[in-house]
């Protein structure tokens, strides 16, 4: 019998062995997730890093042996932001089922999500579900991408092209009669600036509008800046609201931004990487009022709703503008020739973002959204908000701790301050506390500067956290703070 297996093949010659390795991997990872609370994080030593940094072996190390290396030399040093007591940056925790779904995604390994393939239908359904969850208009379209930065970039590319005075695809930014400028608050995420740079607009085109006491964009300053720009011969084309600032979980006044955008004929975009999900909360939903009015909305699925990294979504109200931006140049001729485009072509993922071949994000999102449904996701979001209320209550109740900014949603900015200490000493004391806290668990909390003031920061999008984790955090901070004061470190 002629062998159907080549000399060089990535399929195993012994499937039972491969299956056994798969089962072992699955068991190991399940056990890790089951016991994740007990795992400590360590930085790898120089020696341990060196062992990994070697010339690519001519003859491969082998699957089992390489898995062993993963277990011993990589896994142990993986960041444990998936632990219950992790509230640094804005990091989603994933889930065991999410991990299993990732295996399915890899197994199916589709490269495209276009109809009439099943991936196209699934993508469309996922976009419908996300729109429903976020109360975004039914006529809008959207695309799954790799995360919040990419979601913002994708939306801003559409905004730039849609609002350009001359054909952006053909003439580029240099062909525009006036310099295009856009606006965000001084609390907006840096990925906005990166997008602006990559879109060829130049970061000087981005106006960082000052914020109010509640960290939302100052609308009078925005209007003033727009007027000044118009008077100087610029073309204001887009205003960006933030739903959930990274620093402090603050929200802009989206209804007002919509009105200003209408008056000024500007695109209105919202970066709702994590804060969009307040739409699912009972107590804080009002903060997200008006994000549904945006021309485009960027949202992450790997942060607050804990899908495994990386997955985000760009929703765009004007499907055709979205399609026109990303469809290949020559294909865009269809539009000019007035040919009536079918919805399938306009909503096909390979026409809506940079990637042509793409990861099967649609399958991941479909499986998880369907498995858990609205109630679970609403519950998780509300649970985190309730926990933050509890935690900020602990801070308020303790005379050695101090809230440093209004607690708006899921972020608490605070510091250790037993009283009678100067600003400089307090800053270095709190920096010292952070270092010691990081020795217990790296990045368990982070620090930030808000309006030039140093503070510690907790951001809760963690589906594993319990209230008692915050009790422990408070007692650790108090103990360390007192210790540092006593030792004068
Ligand atoms: C408000 C906001 N926008 C955008 C981003 C970037 O998202 P990603 O890390 O998924 O690229 C973040 C990340 O924390 C964020 O907080």
What's the β-strand tally? 11
Oligomer status:
single chain
Bound ligands, named by name, code or SMILES: pyridoxal-5'-phosphate
CATH homologous superfamily caption of the domain at 102-372: Type I PLP-dependent aspartate aminotransferase-like (Major domain)
Residue share in helices? 40-55%
**Mean pLDDT across all residues, rounded?**
94
Strand order of the largest sheet: 1-7-6-5-4-2-3
Give the termini separation: 77 Å
Strand content: 5-15%
Give short descriptive properties of this protein.
44% helix, binds pyridoxal-5'-phosphate, alpha/beta, Aspartate Aminotransferase, domain 2, 489 residues, single chain
Give a description of the structure.
With 489 residues, the protein is α/β, with parallel strands linked by helices. The protein has helices spanning 15-34, 46-52, 63-74, 96-108, 118-134, 148-163, 168-171, 190-198, 219-231, 254-263, 319-326, 333-336, 343-346, 361-397, 423-440, 467-487; strands at residues 141-145, 180-185, 206-209, 235-242, 267-271, 296-300, 312-316, 401-403, 411-416, 446-450, 453-459. Helix 14 crosses helix 16 (467-487). The longest helix has 37 residues, at 361-397. The radius of gyration is 25 Å and the shape is globular. The model has no long low-confidence stretch (mean pLDDT 94). The chain binds pyridoxal-5'-phosphate (PLP). Pyridoxal-5'-phosphate (PLP) binds next to helix 6. The site of pyridoxal-5'-phosphate (PLP) has 14 residues, from helix 6.
């Amino acid at each position: 019998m002629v062998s159907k297996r080549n000399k060089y093949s990535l399929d195993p010659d012994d499937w039972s062995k491969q299956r056994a390795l798969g089962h072992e991997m699955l068991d190991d990872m399940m056990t890790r997730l089951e016991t994740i609370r007990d795992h400590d994080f360590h930085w790898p030593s120089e020696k341990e890093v060196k062992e990994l940094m070697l010339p690519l072996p001519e003859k491969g190390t082998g699957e089992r042996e390489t898995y062993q290396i993963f277990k011993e030399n990589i896994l142990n040093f993986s960041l444990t932001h998936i632990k219950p007591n992790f509230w640094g940056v804005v990091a989603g925790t994933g889930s065991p089922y999410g991990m299993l779904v990732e295996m399915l995604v890899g197994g199916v390994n589709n490269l495209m999500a276009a109809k009439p393939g099943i991936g196209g239908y699934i993508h469309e359904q996922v976009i419908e579900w996300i729109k429903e969850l976020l109360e975004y208009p039914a006529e809008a379209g959207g695309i799954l991408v790799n995360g919040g930065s990419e979601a913002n970039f994708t939306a801003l590319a559409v905004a730039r092209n849609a609002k350009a005075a001359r054909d952006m695809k053909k003439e580029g930014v240099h062909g525009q009669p006036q310099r295009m400028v856009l606006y965000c608050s001084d609390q907006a995420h840096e990925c906005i600036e990166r997008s602006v740079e990559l879109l060829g607009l130049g970061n000087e085109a981005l106006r960082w509008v000052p914020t109010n006491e509640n960290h939302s964009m100052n609308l009078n300053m925005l209007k003033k800046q727009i007027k000044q720009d118009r008077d100087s011969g610029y073309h204001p084309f887009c205003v960006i609201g933030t739903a959930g600032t990274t620093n402090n979980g603050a929200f802009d006044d989206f209804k007002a931004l919509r009105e200003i955008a209408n008056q000024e004929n500007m695109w209105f975009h919202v970066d709702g990487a994590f804060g969009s999900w307040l739409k699912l909360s009972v107590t804080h939903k009002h903060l997200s009022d008006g994000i549904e009015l945006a021309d485009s909305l960027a949202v992450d699925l790997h942060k607050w709703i804990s899908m495994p990294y990386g997955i985000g979504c760009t929703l765009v109200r004007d499907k055709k503008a979205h399609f026109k931006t990303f469809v290949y140049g020559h294909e865009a001729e269809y539009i000019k020739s007035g040919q009536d485009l079918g919805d399938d072509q306009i909503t096909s993922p390979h026409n809506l973002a940079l990637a042509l071949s793409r990861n099967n994000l649609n399958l991941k999102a479909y499986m998880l959204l369907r498995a858990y449904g609205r109630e679970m996701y609403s519950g998780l979001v509300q649970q985190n908000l309730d926990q933050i209320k509890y935690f900020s209550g602990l801070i308020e109740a303790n005379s050695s701790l101090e809230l440093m900014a209004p607690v708006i949603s899921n972020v608490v900015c605070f510091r250790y301050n037993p009283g009678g200490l100067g600003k400089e000493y307090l800053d270095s004391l709190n920096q010292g506390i952070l270092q010691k806290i990081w020795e217990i668990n790296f990045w368990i909390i982070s620090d930030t500067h808000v309006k030039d003031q140093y503070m510690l920061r907790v951001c809760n999008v963690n589906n594993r956290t319990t209230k008692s984790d915050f009790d422990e955090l408070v007692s650790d901070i108090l103990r360390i703070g007192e210790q540092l004061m006593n030792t004068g470190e």
